[in-house]
Fold this protein.
Amino acid sequence: MKVAVFSARAYDREFLAQANGAAASPHDLRFFEARLDRDSATLAAGYEAVCAFVNDDLDRAALERLAAGGTRLIALRSAGFNHVDLAAARELGLAVARVPAYSPDAVAEHTVALILALNRRIYKAYNRVREGNFALEGLLGFDLKGRTVGIVGVGQIGLCVARIMRGFGCAVVASDPHPVAELEEIGGRYVTLAELFATASIISLHCPLTPDTHHLINADAIAAMVPGVMLVNTSRGAVVDTRALINGLKSGKIGHLALDVYEEEGDLFFEDLSATMIQDDVFARLLTFPNVLITGHQAFFTREAMTAIAGTTIANITAFERTGAPEHPVPFG
């Protein structure tokens, strides 16, 4: 199949080309650095499939242009699909595929790295030592052992985080509308979201972005949390209300904040903007807080995860070419 790959960086080319080369019948991949949206969709004219990433915008207008150009498959190289208008895709007869799991350990380990770096101020200590400053003032942390960690969303990633934090000697409480027994088997406990907010000194978010979870962490939720709570989000940016986070930081209710995602990240993340002024005032405000640590949607970014993402993406395209259905279709409803 002819496949137009959008939002393609050098690492995407490397791993997709490797997976495609290992396929029994390799596909014709064309890489575009541009994000896929209603304007760039015209680049895919004549391509039977497009391969999209998390910050591509597959709204109705974009999908209509893709369908008019002959596209039949949207192959997402991500687990989430909130950036796709599924109702429009169904009406236009477009199949949508995703990568449901790649390396939950990658995201979980990055989550814990953020927790450790925030707690022990590793980022501040690193800069100090490089400047010859070995003072310890302002670097005081706390023992993780004995702390209560709250996990919102107990999928594969949430379970991995729970296992790691149990290894640190933490108590683990969790909230999920679809509980799995494995959490309790490793010593975790399911509670209501209200009880999680009231008891957890560290809260880690691992839920998908849906209408029910949009701004799940808002002003009311933050007000219900333990004073000085550490909040970590490696799920989806819009799960939290960023302005509510800023107010929580200003009041001291949030004592530590780590983000690997941001609700308006589409114009920021995966780009080198070091020579420009950041125009997003809300994001710029976040960067002024000394107890905020932000990474640019890199939690998934390990060699193992990239290999798995590329392999599943190519497998979805191959299955669609052979049978008319991808291996991992996105459910339409």
